[in-house]
Amino acid sequence: MQSQLTVRLPDDLKEEITRIAKRYHLKRSDIVRMALERVLEEFREKERIMPYDRTKDLIGSISSGIPDLGESHRKHLLKKIKKNA
Fold first, then answer.
1. Which of 6, 52, 67, 85 is 20 to 30 A distant from 74 in Cα terms?
2. What is the rounded distance in angstroms from the CA atom of residue 61 to the CA atom of residue 84?
């Protein structure tokens, strides 16, 4: 089932849509629909990015000063908890 959506556009954007529609012999609504589909696909792609991909540039960028923190994190965490208890 199709739904109708009313959108207010600035005149320059409306004119550009009209120009493109005439050039490609399409309806203005087709141009708007195609543009929306493209933008929504870009949003879906961004949502599919894994958390690692979002933070991979940060990995290794900060030093804790503890050389074996990754290997012995439990030992260091328990030591810190006991110290603050």
1. 52
2. 27
**Domains held by the chain: number:** 1
Question: Is residue 76, in this structure, part of any structural domain at all?
Answer: no
69, 76 Cβ separation under 8 angstroms: yes
Q: How far apart are CA 53 and CA 51, in angstroms?
A: 5
Reported as a single tens digit per residue, the pLDDT across 65-80 is 888 877 888 888 898 8
Q: What is the pTM of this model?
A: 0.56
> Quick check: is 36 in a domain?
yes
* Cα radius of gyration (the chain): 26
Taking the CB of residue 24, how many other CB atoms lie within 10 A of it?
10
